[in-house]
Design a protein that fits this description.
mainly alpha; Arc Repressor Mutant, subunit A
Length: about 325
């Protein structure tokens, strides 16, 4: 990067274009955070680049360019704010991914997902919001963001960590699947345990790596035992046959198969429990957490993805 800045100092057009490509995304993110208007942010960034290239010969240390340019962007934004206040245009209303192959239903669903995601990010602090947008949405490295924002790498990593934690607590688990790959640091040797084929299908469609285990149970219905084997399993199977018409052999075989996958959890680097707020999910979660509490996890990590709040539903936890 230093050689490009040096070349830009000499007025070389190719070098200036390269710098624009490298820093435009960062500049727009910072500008939008101040102006809250996409069009005004574009204007501010354009003016900032013009000012930066005009004053670039005055920059003594090329390595200081990211932070120096950020100050210029902010100064341009505040100039615009002083000149005129315009109505706010939410970014999710103007940033739409349109594909010729997409159906109307696909576009509506994608727009709704964008709305959920941006409204969740809006709850973050300004520092977290900028870090998330630059790192996850625009793909800049931690070091590049650190240089541009003049924030230490360790402090930036802390912001990203806190932002991930807050986002996991605010998004609905079924919707969160769509951003799982961007907000979660995982690997391929993962076991995802979910309730319901619909969530499993969403996981598969999203391309999340790892294997998926659909936990098929109705713990709120009938007798439930800590040890679901032997006579206990047979007693539950008989009750479910009498009340729900489930053939005992089918139920018992299904229990054995899912328990076998569970017994092999040590084959995975990580086990992730995907459960929501409702009674069926919470009873499954209780059973699984109790089961894991009696196991030696070794090097396997056990993580939970569970919403902390849901619109229209009172908090169920004490």
């Amino acid at each position: 990067m230093l050689q490009w800045i040096e070349a830009a100092k000499r007025g070389e057009g190719a070098a200036q274009e390269y710098i624009v490509q490298q820093f435009r995304g960062m500049a727009l993110t910072v500008a939008y955070e101040i102006l809250r208007d996409v069009h005004l942010a574009e204007d501010a960034v354009q003016e900032a680049f013009a000012e930066a290239f005009m004053n670039l010969p005055k920059l003594r240390e090329q390595a200081a360019f990211p932070g120096w340019f950020k100050v210029i962007v902010e100064r341009q934004c505040y100039r615009i704010l002083r000149r005129k206040q315009l109505p706010i245009v939410p970014i999710h209303e103007v940033e739409q991914i349109v594909s010729e192959q997409s159906s109307v239903a696909d576009l509506v669903e994608r727009r709704e997902m964008q709305k959920i995601l941006y409204s969740s990010i809006a709850q973050l602090s300004p520092n977290m919001r900028i870090a998330v947008q630059l790192y996850y949405f625009q793909g800049y490295s931690v070091q590049e963001i650190s240089d541009y924002l003049s924030v230490s790498v360790s402090a930036l990593k802390k912001r990203l960590f806190d932002a991930r934690r807050m986002l996991k607590n605010s998004l609905h688990v079924a919707d969160f699947i769509s951003v799982f790959l961007d907000l979660y640091e995982g690997g391929s040797k993962m076991l995802h345990i979910v309730n319901g084929d619909s969530v499993a299908d969403k996981l598969k469609e999203s391309g999340v790596q790892g294997e998926i285990l659909v936990w098929r149970e109705v713990y709120p219905h009938g007798p439930v035992f800590r040890e679901m084997s032997g006579d206990n399993l047979k007693q539950r199977a008989q009750y479910l046959q009498q009340t729900l018409g489930i053939p005992p052999e089918v139920y018992i075989q299904g229990c054995k198969e899912q328990e076998q996958v569970l017994q092999n959890f040590a084959n995975y680097d990580e086990v992730i429990l995907w459960f929501e707020h409702d009674l069926f999910d919470q009873t499954m979660l209780c059973y699984l957490l109790n089961w894991f509490s009696h196991q030696s996890l070794g090097s396997t990590k056990l993580n939970l993805l569970c919403i902390g709040a849901y619109p229209g539903i009172e908090l169920f936890r004490d």
